[in-house]
Amino acid sequence: MVVSLPCEQPHDIRVFGHARFDATYPGKDAAKRMAGEACDDAHDAAPSAWTREAVKKGRFTYTWPRAGGWGAGSDPVITCYVKTR
Q1: CA distances (Å), origin 80, targets 39, 57
Q2: What is the 3-state secondary structure (H, E, C) of 29-50?
Q3: pLDDT tens digit string along 10-32?
Q4: Which residue has the higher pLDDT, 43 or 7?
Q5: Contact (Cβ atoms closer than 8 angstroms) between residue 84 and residue 49
Q6: Mean pLDDT, the chain, whole residue set
Q7: Which of 18, 24, 64, 77 shows the smallest number of beta carbons within 10 Å?
């Protein structure tokens, strides 16, 4: 779960991007690949202020819906973030 905080408050992660895909589940491996590619592009495009706090420079992680949640109620959303502590 992601909770919005003011930037000056201590936080464990910083979200730098989201990506939406259509509701058709592409399969586990394809979904992970699509999420990784979308976040790689988002990381390259993100302002440095959004990514410079990363514990490991240039490293990021992401979450994406699994098969049961893909397209459930809306288009699936991938969340891209850096760990800050």
Answers
A1: 5, 15
A2: HHHHHHHHHHHHHHHHHCCHHH
A3: 889 999 999 998 888 899 999 99
A4: 43
A5: no
A6: 89
A7: 24
